[in-house]
Amino acid sequence: MASALAQGLSHGTIVNESCCLHYWYIAGTDPDRRLITFIPGGNGHGIQFFSLMKALAAQGFNCVTFDRRQMSASQPIDNLPHKPLSPPQQARDARAVIKAMGHDKSIVFGSSSGGLFALQLAQDFPDMVEHLIVHEAALVNLLPDSSKWLDWFVYLVDLFDTQGIEVAQKAFEVELIGYDAEGVPPCVRPDPGNPVNFWQNEFKVQLGYMPNLWKIKQDKVSVGAMRGVRCKDAFFARAVDELAVVLDCPAMAVPGHHQGFEVEMEDFLPSFMGMLDTLEKRKEASA
């Protein structure tokens, strides 16, 4: 499956801060060589974006994604041990991949915790972000009922610490609404080590983490927010609604569940293009 999806894409590596980052890219026909960078979420792997990247390359865009550090192919050099997640470091990894592609600026798409890292990139390197599309980043501190969800996250941490990854993951998946919808194909499963790294090194740090949204707004970064229609009132979908209010940015309900861009790509693509068009017009109007 992975090799079939990778057909038509090129592969590269770059070492950044003691981790060998593996990235995949495809060239479009855009004469301006505009780049779209896709940042994975908690599943960690870039393969979920391959089909969307091919479709966007046909629209003219250059596209790149990568396995995040300590996920799938992107592992520390010299067998160094895995370390706790650093969102600023994740942003620097995305920056390194963009630079490896020969670009100083990129359109950025981040989903789930990838949306959090994309916002961190916009905070730390605003000049690198042409447009930022945040898809269902679980910024629960923005929710009116944030205390409920923060308590739930702490409960999940306790489950992981006391009963193990399978129990914690099963409890977590209860809130991933829409994955069991009739007729929706399954997502590509992550490497076995990815959930382990997520629960051991990432989840506790992400709990309640919030990039500096005020700085992003002050820097006038072009941002659009997306939520999947199959997610209904899931906490991560509602959080994106609140993000749009805070940043005063366009918001859009798009086809699919939390990974609709992967498994319902053909339906998702027009919404993606529509959001880019909205952001372009908004940017032109403010110029």
From TrEMBL:
Query: Molecular function terms in GO for this entry?
Result: hydrolase activity
- Residue limits of the AB hydrolase-1 domain? 36-172
Looking at the keywords, is Hydrolase present? yes
> Which cellular component, as a GO term, is one annotated location?
membrane
| Key words of the record | Hydrolase
InterPro entries membership: AB_hydrolase_1, AB_hydrolase_fold, AB_hydrolase_sf
Methyltransferase recorded as keyword? no
Recorded hits in PANTHER family, A to Z, give: HYDROLASE, PUTATIVE (AFU_ORTHOLOGUE AFUA_2G14860)-RELATED (PTHR43798:SF33), MONOACYLGLYCEROL LIPASE (PTHR43798)
Under which name does UniProt file this protein?
A: Alpha/Beta hydrolase protein
Which organism encodes this protein? Rhypophila decipiens
Q: What is the lineage of its organism?
A: Eukaryota, Fungi, Dikarya, Ascomycota, Pezizomycotina
